[in-house]
Write a structure and sequence with these properties.
200 residues, alpha/beta, Rossmann fold, 6-stranded parallel sheet, two-stranded parallel sheet, 7 helices
Length: 200
């Protein structure tokens, strides 16, 4: 059974924290490949702050182009309506029913997932990998995992990774303020942002 990681996000922009979490998931759970899925119309985001999909997809492509097992997927971008995780997982399972999917996210999402659309379908179709955050205690995370396992029969594992204090909003703010983003995003992404005058 092929083990495939799913790294979804607005990627506005993609940064080195995203790459590090995906690499850790791949190593820890022997994933054969990791799909990066830029969101199409993210229903939980303020659309005024979100760049067009073509820019976010190109930055994602540039960020992962030198990692052979990382692949850009347009499955959400190609939809014209709101995109929902449960539908994306259903589509991926339909395309490759024998694969085992591992959905990679930040540990803080463990407190939000039951409020996503059709959470039972999400947990039914994937194994959730949650990246540990310093602001969440192990006891709190284990309690939340136990709660989701009991309520949804969820498969959830914690990803051990050193915390990286990077966020897309921080990068946008630094660009807007004329500050350097070197070391926060892949070099090719930094070049793309400045060449296309993004976030300025």
């Amino acid at each position: 059974m092929k083990r495939i990681g799913i790294m979804g996000g607005t990627f506005n922009p993609i940064h080195l924290g995203h790459i590090a979490i995906a690499q850790r998931a791949q190593e820890q759970f022997a994933l054969e490949e990791v799909l990066f899925l830029p969101s199409g119309v993210p229903y939980m985001k303020d659309l005024e702050e979100v760049l067009p999909a073509k820019n976010r997809c190109e930055m994602t492509r540039l960020a992962i182009r030198d990692i052979p097992s990382f692949r850009l997927s347009m499955i959400e971008v190609n939809k014209s309506q709101n995109t929902y995780t449960f539908e994306t997982l259903q589509d991926l399972k339909a395309d490759n029913p024998t694969a085992e999917y591992y959905f990679i996210l930040g540990a803080d999402s463990l407190w939000a997932m039951e409020h996503w659309k059709n959470p039972e379908e999400i947990f039914r179709n994937c194994h959730v990998l949650a990246a540990v955050r310093d602001d969440k205690s192990p006891a709190d995370m284990n309690a939340q995992i136990a709660y989701l396992q009991e309520k949804f029969n969820a498969k959830i594992s914690l990803l051990g990774i050193d915390a990286m204090d990077i966020s897309s909003s921080m990068i946008r703010k630094r660009v807007s303020d004329g500050l350097s983003i070197r070391g926060l995003v892949p070099d090719a992404v930094e070049t793309y942002i400045y060449e296309h005058k993004l976030y300025q």
